[in-house]
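Field reference: sequence -> structure
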Amino acid sequence: FLYFQILIDYSSSISDERVMKKHAKADPVARTVRRMGEKKKASYVSDDKVQGIVQLESNLEATAVAACAIDPRISNIRPQPFSIDLMTGRRYASRNELSTRSVPEGVPSKTYTPDFLVSCSNGAEVCLEIKHSDLIDRDPSILEVPKLFKNLGLHLVIVSEHELTEKLAYNARLLRQYSTGFASEEDRELLLVAMKDARKLGDLIAV
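Structure field:
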């Protein structure tokens, strides 16, 4: 049994009308995944930890949501949560809002929109960037972004298909079917202890 380790330390209104909310209860997003008329495919996901039905860019992102959905440490998952100016640390509700900000002439600008903002049951928040290794190889500068986030007091983790393997995708999506709501605090603690070592599904059910 493979369980997704999110690589975090457990102790530790949109002005752009083109941004489409695919569901009335879905959180607004900072960046449009797919506009009407585009041929690019998109995945749609719904879960107790996600507001409404959300649109994702890839199956890899859908697998990440499934893995987060069964992680007892995670209480909320928000896709495309904000756009951030990495030079100032200021967050904006959308890329459109960010692009219209007033920037003094000659001042460099570097912006970024993480794929997800994950909220944990202990109050911690972690940004996730889901990126295939091919895209990282084409643009290695992405590996410097977590350092920029850290300088701003934020935590960004880059996750690729090396973590979100096919076997993990199968297991996470299978278990997600049996995940109902939020675990009690007692059950969460038991699961966290059980997660420290690889376990078979039958062992976890026995817990």
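Note: Confidence is low (pLDDT under 50) at residues 1-23.
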